[in-house]
Amino acid sequence: QVQLVESGGGQVQPGGSLKLSCEASGFFFDYHKIGWFRQTPGKEREGISCLSHSDGATSYADSVKGRFTISRDVAKNVVLLQMNDLKPEDTAVYYCAVDTSISIGTRWCALGARMYDSWGQGTQVTVSS
């Protein structure tokens, strides 16, 4: 059974940085696609970044492009989201998710939530002065 746990959330001032971590248990990220999403009350879950683990292909939503970076630590079996220049509108619960189907060398990943079938519980990020 796939279990994903996000960590690294917290409160930060505008312009600050946070690094989120998505750790898997009972599962290896190799050959899968991983996505980061965020959601605020009353709004749909927004895909902000994804990674094709087998080949390193990434994608970003326009809202975070140039500020957020997704990466992988193969040895630790975690996927990271470095968030820089945070803005109040980045405040949300952040989730990682994985597409458990095998994906090798496709060189793309999707930001649509329907593409992912296993989700973590989320970590709160609050950007406020």
Descriptive overview:
This protein has 129 residues and is mainly β. It is built from no helices and 11 strands. The chain has strands at residues 3-7, 10-12, 18-25, 33-39, 46-52, 57-60, 68-73, 78-83, 92-99, 118-119, 123-127. The strands form 2 sheets. Strands 2, 4, 5, 6, 9, 10 and 11 form a 7-stranded mixed β-sheet that branches. It has a 4-stranded antiparallel β-sheet with strand order 1-3-8-7, with no helix packed on it. The chain is globular. 33% of the residues are buried.
SSE map:
Elements: E1 3-7, E2 10-12, E3 18-25, E4 33-39, E5 46-52, E6 57-60, E7 68-73, E8 78-83, E9 92-99, E10 118-119, E11 123-127
Parallel strand pairs: 2-11
Antiparallel strand pairs: 1-3, 3-8, 4-5, 4-9, 5-6, 7-8, 9-10, 9-11
List the total number of helices: 0
Question: How many β-strands, per DSSP?
Answer: 11
The biggest beta sheet is recorded as: 7 strands, mixed
Run of helices and strands: EEEEEEEEEEE
Alpha carbon gap, first and last residue: 40 Å
Strand content: over 45%
Share of helix among residues? under 10%
Classify the secondary structure makeup into a structural class: mainly beta
| Uncertain regions spanning at least 5 consecutive residues | none
Query: What best-fitting shape do the alpha-carbon axes yield?
Result: globular
Integer-rounded radius of gyration: 14 Å
Overall residue-averaged pLDDT value: 95
